[in-house]
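Thread amino acids onto this structure.
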Protein backbone atom coordinates (compact mmCIF):
# COMPACT_ATOMS: atom_id res chain seq x y z
CA UNK A 1 0.00 0.00 0.00
CA UNK A 2 1.47 3.35 -1.03
CA UNK A 3 1.50 6.17 1.53
CA UNK A 4 2.09 9.92 1.37
CA UNK A 5 5.46 10.89 2.82
CA UNK A 6 6.80 14.30 3.82
CA UNK A 7 10.61 14.27 3.81
CA UNK A 8 12.35 17.24 5.46
CA UNK A 9 16.06 17.88 4.92
CA UNK A 10 16.16 16.23 1.50
CA UNK A 11 19.58 17.64 0.53
CA UNK A 12 21.47 16.63 3.65
CA UNK A 13 23.66 13.52 3.80
CA UNK A 14 20.90 11.33 5.24
CA UNK A 15 18.06 13.15 3.48
CA UNK A 16 19.59 12.53 0.07
CA UNK A 17 19.83 8.80 0.73
CA UNK A 18 16.29 8.72 2.14
CA UNK A 19 15.02 10.11 -1.16
CA UNK A 20 16.30 6.84 -2.66
CA UNK A 21 15.52 4.38 0.13
CA UNK A 22 11.96 5.56 0.85
CA UNK A 23 10.85 5.93 -2.77
CA UNK A 24 9.18 2.46 -2.87
CA UNK A 25 6.91 3.42 0.05
CA UNK A 26 4.79 5.93 -1.84
CA UNK A 27 4.52 9.50 -3.04
CA UNK A 28 7.15 11.73 -1.49
CA UNK A 29 6.82 15.47 -0.92
CA UNK A 30 10.32 16.97 -0.56
CA UNK A 31 10.16 20.72 0.11
CA UNK A 32 13.07 23.05 -0.56
CA UNK A 33 14.52 24.68 2.57
CA UNK A 34 12.84 28.00 1.66
CA UNK A 35 9.47 26.27 1.39
CA UNK A 36 9.76 24.68 4.81
CA UNK A 37 12.19 26.44 7.15
CA UNK A 38 12.30 24.53 10.40
CA UNK A 39 13.11 27.74 12.24
CA UNK A 40 9.68 29.03 11.14
CA UNK A 41 7.02 27.14 13.17
CA UNK A 42 4.05 28.59 11.26
CA UNK A 43 5.51 27.59 7.90
CA UNK A 44 6.33 24.11 9.19
CA UNK A 45 2.79 23.63 10.53
CA UNK A 46 1.19 24.79 7.28
CA UNK A 47 3.36 22.51 5.13
CA UNK A 48 2.38 19.50 7.24
CA UNK A 49 -1.31 20.49 7.27
CA UNK A 50 -1.34 21.03 3.50
CA UNK A 51 0.48 17.75 2.81
CA UNK A 52 -1.42 15.55 5.33
CA UNK A 53 1.24 12.83 5.17
CA UNK A 54 0.93 9.38 6.71
CA UNK A 55 4.66 9.57 7.41
CA UNK A 56 6.89 12.54 8.30
CA UNK A 57 10.62 11.90 8.05
CA UNK A 58 12.84 14.56 9.56
CA UNK A 59 16.39 14.44 8.23
CA UNK A 60 16.83 18.21 8.66
CA UNK A 61 18.81 19.53 11.59
CA UNK A 62 21.12 22.32 12.69
CA UNK A 63 24.31 20.24 12.46
CA UNK A 64 27.00 22.95 12.73
CA UNK A 65 28.14 21.74 16.16
CA UNK A 66 30.61 24.55 16.90
CA UNK A 67 28.51 27.36 15.40
CA UNK A 68 25.58 26.28 17.56
CA UNK A 69 27.48 27.42 20.66
CA UNK A 70 27.02 31.05 19.57
CA UNK A 71 23.74 30.54 17.68
CA UNK A 72 21.76 28.70 20.31
CA UNK A 73 18.36 30.24 19.52
CA UNK A 74 18.35 29.04 15.92
CA UNK A 75 19.81 25.64 16.89
CA UNK A 76 17.03 25.25 19.48
CA UNK A 77 14.32 26.31 17.02
CA UNK A 78 15.46 23.75 14.43
CA UNK A 79 16.59 20.86 16.66
CA UNK A 80 14.24 21.13 19.62
CA UNK A 81 11.10 23.13 18.77
CA UNK A 82 10.54 21.93 15.19
CA UNK A 83 10.53 18.18 16.04
CA UNK A 84 7.94 18.92 18.75
CA UNK A 85 5.72 20.63 16.16
CA UNK A 86 6.15 17.68 13.78
CA UNK A 87 5.18 15.31 16.58
CA UNK A 88 2.06 17.34 17.50
CA UNK A 89 0.94 17.46 13.87
CA UNK A 90 1.75 13.77 13.36
CA UNK A 91 -0.39 12.88 16.37
CA UNK A 92 -3.34 14.88 14.99
CA UNK A 93 -2.97 13.14 11.63
CA UNK A 94 -2.32 9.74 13.22
CA UNK A 95 0.87 9.73 11.14
CA UNK A 96 4.27 8.21 11.87
CA UNK A 97 7.29 10.43 12.60
CA UNK A 98 10.85 9.31 11.89
CA UNK A 99 13.53 11.48 13.46
CA UNK A 100 17.33 11.35 13.89
CA UNK A 101 19.40 12.22 16.92
CA UNK A 102 22.99 11.96 18.00
CA UNK A 103 25.68 10.42 20.18
CA UNK A 104 26.33 14.00 21.39
CA UNK A 105 23.39 13.67 23.82
CA UNK A 106 25.91 11.80 26.03
CA UNK A 107 28.91 13.19 27.89
CA UNK A 108 31.13 10.23 27.00
CA UNK A 109 32.01 9.35 30.60
CA UNK A 110 30.64 5.79 30.45
CA UNK A 111 33.23 3.01 30.21
CA UNK A 112 31.34 0.95 27.59
CA UNK A 113 28.86 1.56 24.79
CA UNK A 114 25.76 3.59 25.61
CA UNK A 115 22.36 1.91 25.61
CA UNK A 116 19.09 3.75 24.95
CA UNK A 117 18.20 3.81 28.67
CA UNK A 118 21.44 5.54 29.73
CA UNK A 119 20.89 9.03 31.11
CA UNK A 120 21.91 11.64 28.53
CA UNK A 121 24.11 14.51 29.67
CA UNK A 122 24.95 16.68 26.65
CA UNK A 123 28.16 18.71 26.65
CA UNK A 124 27.22 21.14 23.87
CA UNK A 125 24.36 23.34 22.67
CA UNK A 126 23.96 21.01 19.68
CA UNK A 127 23.71 17.94 21.94
CA UNK A 128 21.31 19.68 24.33
CA UNK A 129 19.00 20.88 21.56
CA UNK A 130 18.98 17.45 19.90
CA UNK A 131 18.05 15.89 23.25
CA UNK A 132 15.21 18.42 23.68
CA UNK A 133 13.97 17.41 20.22
CA UNK A 134 13.86 13.73 21.23
CA UNK A 135 12.04 14.59 24.45
CA UNK A 136 9.48 16.77 22.67
CA UNK A 137 8.60 13.83 20.39
CA UNK A 138 8.37 11.35 23.26
CA UNK A 139 6.19 13.72 25.32
CA UNK A 140 3.74 14.25 22.46
CA UNK A 141 3.02 10.55 22.16
CA UNK A 142 2.83 10.32 18.38
CA UNK A 143 3.86 7.08 16.66
CA UNK A 144 7.58 7.44 16.16
CA UNK A 145 10.97 5.99 15.39
CA UNK A 146 13.95 8.00 16.67
CA UNK A 147 17.40 6.85 15.56
CA UNK A 148 20.49 8.12 17.38
CA UNK A 149 23.48 7.87 15.08
CA UNK A 150 27.10 9.11 15.00
CA UNK A 151 29.90 10.44 12.77
CA UNK A 152 27.76 10.43 9.60
CA UNK A 153 29.47 10.31 6.20
CA UNK A 154 28.39 10.23 2.56
CA UNK A 155 29.96 10.77 -0.83
CA UNK A 156 27.76 13.85 -1.07
CA UNK A 157 27.92 16.69 1.43
CA UNK A 158 30.54 17.85 3.88
CA UNK A 159 32.09 15.42 6.34
CA UNK A 160 35.34 14.46 8.07
CA UNK A 161 36.56 12.02 5.39
CA UNK A 162 36.24 14.61 2.63
CA UNK A 163 37.97 17.22 4.78
CA UNK A 164 40.89 14.84 5.38
CA UNK A 165 41.25 14.16 1.64
CA UNK A 166 41.35 17.90 0.90
CA UNK A 167 43.85 18.64 3.68
CA UNK A 168 46.09 15.74 2.60
CA UNK A 169 46.43 17.30 -0.83
CA UNK A 170 47.47 20.65 0.63
CA UNK A 171 49.72 19.71 3.55
CA UNK A 172 52.72 17.43 4.18
CA UNK A 173 51.54 16.36 7.63
CA UNK A 174 48.36 16.39 9.69
CA UNK A 175 47.54 16.10 13.37
CA UNK A 176 44.22 14.51 14.37
CA UNK A 177 42.73 13.73 17.78
CA UNK A 178 42.94 10.12 18.93
CA UNK A 179 41.04 10.20 22.22
CA UNK A 180 37.43 10.35 20.97
CA UNK A 181 35.98 6.96 20.03
CA UNK A 182 32.94 6.09 17.95
CA UNK A 183 31.63 4.52 14.76
CA UNK A 184 31.62 6.43 11.47
CA UNK A 185 28.22 5.63 9.98
CA UNK A 186 27.15 5.82 6.37
CA UNK A 187 24.12 7.87 5.36
CA UNK A 188 23.29 5.02 2.95
CA UNK A 189 23.19 2.55 5.84
CA UNK A 190 21.05 4.89 7.96
CA UNK A 191 18.56 5.33 5.11
CA UNK A 192 18.42 1.60 4.33
CA UNK A 193 17.92 0.62 7.97
CA UNK A 194 15.25 3.31 8.28
CA UNK A 195 13.38 1.77 5.34
CA UNK A 196 13.61 -1.75 6.77
CA UNK A 197 12.37 -0.63 10.19
CA UNK A 198 9.56 1.40 8.64
CA UNK A 199 8.39 -1.57 6.61
CA UNK A 200 8.22 -3.56 9.80
CA UNK A 201 6.29 -1.00 11.87
CA UNK A 202 3.92 -0.09 9.01
CA UNK A 203 3.02 -3.76 8.53
CA UNK A 204 1.69 -4.24 12.04
CA UNK A 205 4.87 -3.90 14.07
CA UNK A 206 3.61 -0.78 15.79
CA UNK A 207 4.78 -2.03 19.20
CA UNK A 208 8.34 -1.63 17.95
CA UNK A 209 8.09 2.16 17.90
CA UNK A 210 10.64 3.94 20.05
CA UNK A 211 14.20 5.19 20.38
CA UNK A 212 17.04 3.19 18.83
CA UNK A 213 20.80 3.47 18.49
CA UNK A 214 21.75 3.09 14.82
CA UNK A 215 25.48 3.06 14.08
CA UNK A 216 27.79 0.83 12.05
CA UNK A 217 29.65 -1.98 13.80
CA UNK A 218 33.23 -1.59 14.98
CA UNK A 219 34.87 1.55 16.26
CA UNK A 220 37.76 3.89 15.68
CA UNK A 221 38.97 7.31 16.74
CA UNK A 222 39.35 10.36 14.50
CA UNK A 223 43.08 9.69 14.01
CA UNK A 224 42.43 6.07 12.99
CA UNK A 225 39.63 7.23 10.70
CA UNK A 226 41.89 9.82 9.03
CA UNK A 227 44.62 7.25 8.40
CA UNK A 228 42.09 4.80 6.99
CA UNK A 229 40.85 7.47 4.56
CA UNK A 230 44.38 8.29 3.38
CA UNK A 231 45.35 4.61 3.10
CA UNK A 232 42.37 3.95 0.83
CA UNK A 233 43.18 7.05 -1.23
CA UNK A 234 46.86 6.12 -1.51
CA UNK A 235 45.94 2.61 -2.73
CA UNK A 236 44.02 4.12 -5.63
CA UNK A 237 47.03 6.24 -6.58
CA UNK A 238 45.54 9.57 -5.45
CA UNK A 239 48.11 12.37 -5.43
CA UNK A 240 48.52 13.21 -1.74
CA UNK A 241 51.17 15.36 -0.09
CA UNK A 242 50.42 13.76 3.26
CA UNK A 243 50.91 9.98 3.51
CA UNK A 244 48.89 7.91 6.03
CA UNK A 245 51.97 7.60 8.26
CA UNK A 246 52.32 11.40 8.30
CA UNK A 247 49.06 11.73 10.27
CA UNK A 248 50.04 12.14 13.92
CA UNK A 249 47.78 11.62 16.93
CA UNK A 250 47.07 14.49 19.32
CA UNK A 251 44.83 14.72 22.39
CA UNK A 252 41.56 16.68 22.24
CA UNK A 253 43.13 19.21 24.62
CA UNK A 254 45.60 20.16 21.85
CA UNK A 255 42.77 20.97 19.43
CA UNK A 256 40.33 23.25 21.26
CA UNK A 257 36.97 23.87 19.59
CA UNK A 258 33.97 25.94 20.76
CA UNK A 259 31.81 22.83 21.43
CA UNK A 260 32.94 20.05 23.77
CA UNK A 261 32.69 16.52 22.33
CA UNK A 262 32.23 13.24 24.21
CA UNK A 263 35.38 11.09 24.44
CA UNK A 264 33.21 7.99 24.23
CA UNK A 265 30.62 8.07 21.43
CA UNK A 266 30.12 4.30 21.33
CA UNK A 267 26.43 3.42 20.92
CA UNK A 268 25.16 -0.08 21.67
CA UNK A 269 22.91 -1.27 18.82
CA UNK A 270 21.66 -4.51 20.42
CA UNK A 271 18.08 -3.24 20.73
CA UNK A 272 17.82 -2.29 17.04
CA UNK A 273 19.36 -5.57 15.84
CA UNK A 274 17.17 -7.66 18.14
CA UNK A 275 13.82 -5.90 17.52
CA UNK A 276 14.19 -5.68 13.74
CA UNK A 277 16.39 -8.74 13.16
CA UNK A 278 19.09 -6.72 11.41
CA UNK A 279 22.80 -6.99 10.74
CA UNK A 280 24.96 -3.87 10.95
CA UNK A 281 28.19 -4.04 8.90
CA UNK A 282 31.57 -2.78 10.11
CA UNK A 283 32.02 0.95 9.49
CA UNK A 284 34.86 0.28 7.03
CA UNK A 285 32.48 -1.49 4.62
CA UNK A 286 30.57 1.64 3.65
CA UNK A 287 33.57 3.93 4.19
CA UNK A 288 35.45 2.03 1.44
CA UNK A 289 32.44 2.37 -0.86
CA UNK A 290 32.24 6.11 -0.22
CA UNK A 291 35.95 6.64 -0.86
CA UNK A 292 35.85 4.54 -4.03
CA UNK A 293 32.99 6.70 -5.27
CA UNK A 294 34.62 10.03 -4.38
CA UNK A 295 38.03 9.07 -5.79
CA UNK A 296 36.53 7.64 -9.01
CA UNK A 297 34.62 10.89 -9.60
CA UNK A 298 37.79 12.88 -9.04
CA UNK A 299 39.70 10.78 -11.59
CA UNK A 300 36.92 11.12 -14.18
N1 LIG B 1 26.47 14.64 10.55
C1 LIG B 1 26.77 13.89 11.61
O1 LIG B 1 27.93 13.52 11.83
C2 LIG B 1 25.68 13.43 12.54
C3 LIG B 1 26.04 12.71 13.69
C4 LIG B 1 25.03 12.28 14.56
C5 LIG B 1 23.71 12.55 14.28
N2 LIG B 1 23.39 13.28 13.17
C6 LIG B 1 21.98 13.58 12.92
O2 LIG B 1 21.59 12.91 11.73
C7 LIG B 1 20.61 13.70 11.05
C8 LIG B 1 21.04 13.91 9.59
O3 LIG B 1 22.32 14.55 9.61
P1 LIG B 1 23.11 14.88 8.28
O4 LIG B 1 24.54 14.54 8.50
O5 LIG B 1 22.39 14.33 7.11
O6 LIG B 1 22.99 16.46 8.29
P2 LIG B 1 23.33 17.50 7.12
O7 LIG B 1 24.04 16.83 6.01
O8 LIG B 1 23.94 18.68 7.82
O9 LIG B 1 21.87 17.89 6.60
C9 LIG B 1 20.98 18.61 7.38
C10 LIG B 1 19.97 19.23 6.45
O10 LIG B 1 19.09 20.05 7.23
C11 LIG B 1 18.91 21.25 6.52
N3 LIG B 1 18.53 22.34 7.41
C12 LIG B 1 19.31 23.02 8.28
N4 LIG B 1 18.61 24.01 8.86
C13 LIG B 1 17.36 23.94 8.34
C14 LIG B 1 16.17 24.70 8.52
N5 LIG B 1 16.14 25.75 9.34
N6 LIG B 1 15.07 24.36 7.82
C15 LIG B 1 15.08 23.31 6.96
N7 LIG B 1 16.19 22.56 6.72
C16 LIG B 1 17.30 22.87 7.42
C17 LIG B 1 20.24 21.52 5.88
O11 LIG B 1 20.11 22.46 4.83
P3 LIG B 1 21.38 23.41 4.48
O12 LIG B 1 22.49 22.49 4.11
O13 LIG B 1 20.86 24.22 3.36
O14 LIG B 1 21.67 24.17 5.75
C18 LIG B 1 20.61 20.13 5.38
O15 LIG B 1 20.03 19.85 4.12
C19 LIG B 1 20.45 14.98 11.86
O16 LIG B 1 19.35 14.84 12.72
C20 LIG B 1 21.72 15.05 12.68
O17 LIG B 1 21.53 15.77 13.89
C21 LIG B 1 24.34 13.70 12.29
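Threaded sequence (300 positions):
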Amino acid sequence: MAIDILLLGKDGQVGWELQRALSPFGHMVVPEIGECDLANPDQLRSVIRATKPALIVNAAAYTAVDKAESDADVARAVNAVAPGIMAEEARKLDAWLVHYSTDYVFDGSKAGAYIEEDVPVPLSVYGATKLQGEQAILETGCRHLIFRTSWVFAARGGNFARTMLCLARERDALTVVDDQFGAPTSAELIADITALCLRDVLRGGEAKQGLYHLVAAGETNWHGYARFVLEQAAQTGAALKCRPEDVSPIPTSAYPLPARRPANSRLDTSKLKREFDLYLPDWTYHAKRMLTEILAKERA
